[in-house]
Every structure is written in structure tokens, then in C-alpha cells.
Amino acid sequence: MILLVMKRWAMPILIIALVCSFPASGEDQSGGWLGKAIDFYSSGSYELALLYVNKSLDIDPGYPDAWDLKGYILSDLGRYDEAANCFSRSLDIDPSDAYIWYSQGFALHNLERYEEAVECYDRALELNSSDLNFWRARGLALYSLGRYGEAAASYDEALLIDPTQMDVWYNKGLALGGMGKYEKSIECYDFVIKIDESDAASWHAKGFALYSLGRPEEAIQSYDRAIAIDPSYTDVWYNKGIVLSSLERYEEAFKCYAAAVQIDPLYHAAWYNKGLALYSLGRYDEAISSYDEALRIDPSLVATLNNKGNALYALGSLDEALDCYERAVRIDPDYSNAWFNKGVVLDLLGRWDEAVEAYDRVIGIDPAYKDVWYNKGLGLYSLGRYEEAIEAFDFVLETNPENVNAWYNKGLALGRLGRYEEALSCYEEALKTDPHQTDVLNNKCSTLYNLGRYNDSISCYDDVIGVDPAYECAWYNKGAALYRLGMHREAAICYDKAISINASRMDAWRGRGDALANIGEFDGAVESYDRAVALDPGDPDVWYNRGFVLYNASKHQEAVESYNKVIEIDPSYEGVWQLKGLALYDLGRFEEAFECYDEALEIDPSDVSLWYNKGVALYSLERYYEAVECYDKVIEIDRYEKGDALYSLGRYEEAADCYDKVIEVAPLEAEAWFNKGSALQSLGDYDKAGECYDRVIGIDPSYEGVWKKKGFVLQMLGDYNDSVACYDRVLERDPSDIEACRGKGRALQNLERYEEALACYDEIVKVDPGDAEAWSSKGLVLRHLERYDEAVGCYDEAIAINSSAKEFWIDKGAAYEDMGKLDDAISSYDRAIAIDPLDAGAWYQKGLVLSESGWLEEALGSYDEAIAIDPTRGGAWRGKGAIFEGQGKAEDAITCYEKAIEADPSDAESWYRKGSVFEGLGRGKEALNGYEMAIEADPSFVKAWRSRGHLFFTSERYAEALENYDRAVEIDPSNGTVWYERGLTLQSLGRLEEAVESYDRATEIDPKIAEIWYTRGTALDGLGRYDEAVDSYDQALAVDPRDMKSWNRKGDDFYKLGQHKKALECYDKFIELSST
């Protein structure tokens, strides 16, 4: 609050008029007493004056002059109520005295009875409109009533009478300011200052006007002028502090308030604002001391109590803060700020019922109070009163539909009620206002997850990570979604990211363990579980999973120890006794295993697998009769159930054994053979699975699903024609069976019967246009058919169905590569990377295309990204090596090829490239080793045979070179370069006829290489077959008419043939070309 003070005036008293009106009848008469009263009044002896004027009135109560004097005396004594009564008595006697009306107005004015004062001033002006004081006083009273326009008009009238009255100019400025006419008010203050630059009040008031005009720096300058004139002017120090606070210059503001309270230690508003400035500076203890000073002056200052509470809150002293808020509302039960803050503190103290009550008190005082409905909603949410919380958030959203937090928390409440679709809508509304709110995005993703929309949730988590790569929850939750989709390695990578951000996140260690367990990385899984139980030793799930992994890793004793931990925490934990029993059995501790199964059967006596395992344990203890009883119990309960249970647990070998037990009892039970086949299929034993399916078909050729299963295993065995026949049997019965159609399409692809495969995928998308996988498969077939535009269209269809499937973007990129549209290919790979920044394959593919486009530095960057994600990605190391090789950075290239080989010692291409670089460096022995290792890795690798041959050739080891070239053309007879180099080798061995044959094979493959024709000619020259040699040189010159060596050799042959003219023509051509 900024303070301004009106300039008041001292009321002039017309004593002369009173003296002139005395009666002349002696001291005992009223006039005599009045004369004495006037004398005492004139000398400032007001009490004596009052005594004598009262004596006058005792004699003559109807004496108006005595009433007037008594009124003046009482006014000067500050007894304005009595003064007003005196003037009223005088006016009752003589209402025509303008000055007495004015004097009564003055008394009423001081009593803050401004309306009555204005009426008195108006009566005075009716009698005498030319008195400056009347207009001035009327202006002051009107100003106090907030009637600023009328006040300004009164001041104008006063200034018409006397324009030199500085206080009137000043007060007119205040009135204009009250009307918001600050520019005009400044003109008034400037008028005063022009006449009297030392008028501190005008500089002060001008500062206020400038601040109100939004010109704070100029306001400060005005306040500084006022302070320079009067350093003890407390209001100026105070108001300067207000302006500095508004500029967030709290240190300077604090100094101003400190100056104010130093001058006036009882200035509680300054103490209060000093506290606010210190609070803004984070100096909470000092702020509290300032608030305490204000409260020492006036303990009823509720705003001060409230802000003291805020400072205590900032220091974490919640109970003391609460005490302040409660004191404030006891003083003023309608003080909404303190009720609100009380609610906030109660929230933090977990006293949500009381917090909601506090917010309700705020709503009762001011239903539109900012944030109260929102905070009430939070309190209700914490109490689990979700429906009421939703109503509170709805109230917020009615007035502010863009309130992100209200949408967000409403979404949370709906999620708690399982109303996920509505929750999702709330998060989407919040994101319209702030698309980068990570908490909202994360909960949107989690809601998609809860709806089973895992792919969409993964894409959503990628959006969160794009906004904040360090948002651990998004990495963890993305991992959970990937895990749900069976993408366990990708899930593990996400859990790793969450852990790298927060290594104490137990659930991320547990998730990492589960993911690694599912891809068979048992050591890593156990290490993860160990980290998880170190953080929370009381979590039975982690101990259980740890035991399960150790069991599968054949570490049975450690598995038992883990299961013991589970039992210690929860003896009735589902499945733990059985798994402990299995581990003990495998350790040969049959008695203990048997006891475990008994414990498990106490919990669930209908579990056939327990009866079966108990029977196995008893059998191993040679307690055969009891074992038979257990097996009978299995058959009694359900002869299939055990096998099915084991199958669902992924224990396919044991499941197959169970189905064998059924088959022993019922060898013509088609279901048992079918289920056994399914278990064997899951084990990858496709031959035996196929035999089982054949047995099913022998029993019941129409058995549901068997032809489809047989088609699949035949495809896995490479018997694609029979696989197609099986799928056709399914499709004869049900042409709309999408999976059969899909399987047939894959088999036809492998047979390179692409048109027929295309028809299969067309049929699928006709039945189900939303089958993204079918669109993608169709795209691949179209690529084989070189119908690239159509392929891209198919990938677009797949992407439209599921834009978060990175595989579709990668395949689309490959199609663009096929078309030579490298920029489009890069864009597609970028989209895949945006979906999953940890997809090393996408980075690698992007690197290949960038390299092909000549963007070598960018390509290196992409390869580096791939390697950072997966250091064993040999292709990326090889790609880097190729770039370095092309740039002449041989050592860097070799290092990269060695990294690729380290990742995959059977990488023939990298061995070959390494050898090639060594050959370029003249390091033949190391080059030879590279080529030999490439051939060892891939005996059909033509480039290595050829390069090894070339190395021997350049070392003049022609026989060994020939062996390598012979092996190369045996593998690939269509390689013209190898035939050519083989010819050179034969020629070097003097085996010219064979050399010519090799050159002939090379020219058949590519007749447009002049060098081959030329070298063929030289071999024919060696055989003396000059006519044929000339023909060869002509062929070379047809390809390259400027080939000087062919002109020269042709001339030699013509000379040998005696055709000297033609020889000269050839030599002339040779000379002509030589001179250019």
C-alpha cells in the first residue's frame, strides 16, 4: 500500500469580529466574560479561555459570539465533537454566518464525518462563494469521501480566487490522481515544485503518480528528491521501498523499509513490508523478526501473522506456521488468505480432513478464491474421495479450462477409479495447453499402458524422453511396456537408462532382472535382483524371481536360498514351495523336496503339478506305492492340466513329458499329440513336432489348428512347398483365416513366388485393413518385385495404423534406398530413431545411407550412435572403417575393422577390409592374414579369394595366385574382373592360350572395358596371332579411341603383317595423341 497525505490547513479565526460585537454593560455581564475569554484565547491559555466563555454563556445562552468562541477553543483543544455542537448552537441562533458554517464543517471534517462537513461547506459557500478557504476545505472533505472529480472542481474554484496557493495545487494533484489522471496530477505537483523545489510532499506525490503511470525509475528519482530535502520523511522511504519491491530489487527495498523504521520504530506497515522484502530475499529468519516487530506494535495485524506463517513455512517449521494462520483466523474469521494457507500446511502434515475443512471455509468467504477448489481437490484425492475430488477439479475447469494441473489431477482421480478413457481425455486436454509437461505426458503414457495400448504408450514415453531425457519414470515405464510386448532386450536397455539416472530405483533393478532373465542372460538378471534386494530386502517378488532365474541357470542351492527368503517373508507365497521342491529335487535332496510339495499342497491341494512332482520325489525315495497314489491323483484331477500349466510357464520339455504320460494312457488322444507337438515346436524341435502333427492328422484330419501348425514347422524346416500345401488345407475350410494366409505368404516369399505371396497379403488387408504387419509384409514383397513406390505406400499404410512401430519406418527407409531416394531414406530412419533413440540398427542404416550420400561426418556420427548403444554392432564399426579408409586414415580404419572382428570373429567382410588396408600400406604379410581369415570365416567369399590372388600376383607368386583366381571363378563365374586378373596370371606363367580364354570370359561378361581387350591383344601377339590381336586392339579403341598403347601395338602388328601403310597410320595416331 502506497501512502499519500493531504496538505491540511490551520483554520483562521476572525477574533476582531467577535471583539466588535461585545455588549458594554460591565464585567458581570456576558460580554465582559467573553472579553476575558478572548484575551486568554489570544494568549494560548485555552483552558482559562474556556472557563470564561462558559461564564459568559451561563449568563446569556443565546449569545452566538460566545458559542463561536467556545467552538474555536474546543477545536484547538482537539475536542471536535463538542466544538461542532457549539457551532450548531450558534447557527441555530444565527444561520447567516458563513464563517461559522465553515467552522462547523471543519470540526465535522476532523471527526471524519465528511458528508456532514461537505453540507456545512456548501452552506458557507451559498453565503459567500468568494472565500478560498471554503472551497479548499470542501475539496479536502470530498477527497476523503473518494469523490475526486468534485474535489478537483472545488480546488479549481479556490485557485480562481488565488492561484498562488501551493497546498491547493498539491491537493488538486491528489484528487486528479484519485481519478487516475496522473499526467494532470503531475502538472500540479510540477507547478508547486517550480515555485518551491524544496517541497518534499510534492516530490513524494509526484513519485506516486509516476509509479502509477508505470514509470517506476522516474518515481524513484522523485522519491530520492523528497528524501534529499527531508531524510526523516518516513512515508517517502516506505513508498520508495514499495516501488523497489515491485521491481524485485528487494535488497534496496529492504534498506528503504529499514530507514523508515529507524526514523519511526512504531511504523508497523514498514516493519511488515521489510519482512516481505526479506522473505523475497530468502532471509526467512530476519523476515520473521520484522513481522514480530510489527505484531509487537499491533498484535491484530492478520496479514502480518499470515506472512509470518509463510516465512515459517519456507523454513519448514510447519507447526509454527500453522499456529500463525490459526491466530490470524481467530482475529478475523473471514480472512481467507490465512484459511487457505492453513489448508496448505495441513495438507503437508497429512491432516487432509482438516485441510479440506479449511478450504471449505475459504470457499464460504470467497468461492472464487484462486486455487482453493484445486487445493480442495488435492486434499480429497489424498483422502481417497476421488469422485468429490473430480467435482472440485471440474469447478476449477469451469472458470479456467486451460488449467493444466486441474486436468492432470482430475486424470489421476479418474485413473484411480479405473476410468482410463476419461483420464486419457484429461491428460490430452492438459497437453493442449502445455505439450511439454512431462508429468502429464508420463501419466498419459501410463494410462495408455493400463488400456493395453502398449505400442501407443511406448511412443508416448518417447515423447516424454524427447522433452526430458533424464526423466527416469518414463524410461522405467517404457521398459515395462516393452516387456509386455515381449521386447525384453529393449526393455532392459530402458531399465538401464532409468538406473543410470537413479541407481536407487529398486523397481528398475527388478525390471532389468526380469527382462534379462527372459533373454537368457541369467548372470545379469541375478546381479540386478541382488541390487534390488539390497535396496528392499523385504520384497518377496524379487527373491522369488531371483530363485527362478538361479534355478534355470542350474544354480540350485542358490535358488533354494532365495526361495527360503521368500518363505521367511510370506510362507503362503504362491508357487514358492513347489519351486523350492524342484530345486531340492535336482540337488538330490528328495526328502526335503517331498516336504516342500506337502507344504504347497496344504495351500492348494488341487494343483496337479504338485501331486506329480511329489510323486517323482517319492519315486526317487523308492516309496513306490505312495508315488503311484500321487500319479493317480494327477489323473484324477486332470490328465492335461499339468502339461498345460508347464507349457504356460514356458517349461516346454516338462510339458512334452506330461503329454507323453497322457499318450501312454490314451495313444489315440489327438489333443495330447497336438499339445506335445506345440511344446516341441516351442523348443525348436520342428522334426519331432511335425511327427506329432502327422499323428494328429492320422487320428483326426479335421483337428482344429493342426494344418496351420504343421505348415509352420515345415516352413521352419525349409520345406516351403509342403508348407504352402498345409496352409491351403486351412484356407480351403476358412478362406478368411488371416494367420494361415500370412504363413502361406511367408512360405511363398521364401520360394520367391512373389506375385502369389502378394495375393496372400492382399487378402489379409482386404479382410482386416488394420493389420499393420500384413501391410509391412506386402511392402517387402513389392520390394522384391522392384515395385518400390507401391512398397512405400504399403509402409505408409502400416505406419498410419501404428506410427510408433519403428520397424515400419526402417523398412520404408530401405525401400527408399532401393529407389535411390537417399534423403527420404534418411528421414525415415530419423523417424524410427525418434521412436526409439536406442535402436542401434536404425542408426547403422542411417549411417550407411549418409555415407552413400557423401555426408561422411554425419555418417560417422550415426555409426558412433549405433556403437554407443551396442558396442558389438560390427557393421557400424565396419562402416566407420570404410569411411576412414576412403579418407586415407589407414590406422583408424584398421582399428575399426579390428573392433568389428572383436564383436564377430566370423565377420568375413571386416577381415577382408582389414587385409585390403594393409595391402594398401604395403604390409603384405598382414594383408595376406586378413584375406586368409576372411576365407576361413566364409569360404565362398569371392573378394577375399580375388584379393589374395592379386597379392600373390604382385609378389610374382603366380601359381598360388592362379589357385586363388580359380577358386574365385568357381564360386562366381560371372565376375569379369576375376577372369581378367586370372588371364594376367596365366599370361605371366606363359600359358597364353589359357590366358586368351580367360580374357574371352571377361569380355563376354563386360565388353566395354578397353584394358581387357588390350591385354587380350598382347597375349595374342605372344602367340603370333597378329590378325586376331589387331581385332582385339580395335575392340579396345572402339571403347576408348584415345588409348595410345592400343594404337602403338596395332601399328606393330600391321608392320609384322607387312601392312606398312596401316602401320604408319597407327603410329601417326599414336604420335598425335602423345603430343596432346
TrEMBL record:
Repeat is among the record's keywords: yes
Pfam families: TPR_1, TPR_11, TPR_16, TPR_2, TPR_8
Protein name: Tetratricopeptide TPR_2
Native source organism of the sequence: Methanothrix harundinacea
Per-repeat ranges for TPR: 64-97, 98-131, 132-165, 166-199, 200-233, 234-267, 268-301, 302-335, 336-369, 370-403, 404-437, 472-505, 506-539, 540-573, 574-607, 608-641, 670-703, 704-737, 738-771, 772-805, 806-839, 840-873, 874-907, 908-941, 942-975, 976-1009, 1010-1043
Keywords carried by this UniProt record: Repeat, TPR repeat
Keyword Signal: no
